[in-house]
Amino acid sequence: MHTDHVQRSYSFACLDCGHGWEDTYDIDLTVDEHSRITAVYHLDGRRVPSPLQSPRCPACESPKIRIMRPGRVTAARRHEG
What is the model's pLDDT at position 77? Predict the structure, then answer.
């Protein structure tokens, strides 16, 4: 078995309430002897589910989420003011 540690950032936008947020995840990627990949996600030191599967808005709990490349929410906020 082989495990790599990587970081990935994602931007999220709720399609119901408009809330936007960004998070950076620590991910442990393990490849077993049969070439199966297992990913374990951590956010702020806590194990969490994959943000790519069934995300929910932290503001309104809606499952209608758009996932984007990192920096999209920050860039949009700069243009709001």
Answer: 54
Q: What is the torsional sign of CA 5, 10, 14, 20?
A: positive
Token couple for 78: 């700069």
Distances (CA, A) of 55 to 42, 43, 64: 14, 14, 8
User: Quick check: helix, strand or coil at residue 6?
Assistant: strand
Nearby residues of 69 by Cβ (< 8 Å), 6 or more positions away:
10, 11
3-class secondary-structure state, position 74:
helix
In the chain, domain spans: 2-80
CA distances from 30 to 4, 26, 39, 40, 52 (A): 6, 13, 6, 8, 18
Q: Would you state the pLDDT for residue 2?
A: 83
pLDDT value at 79 more than 70: no
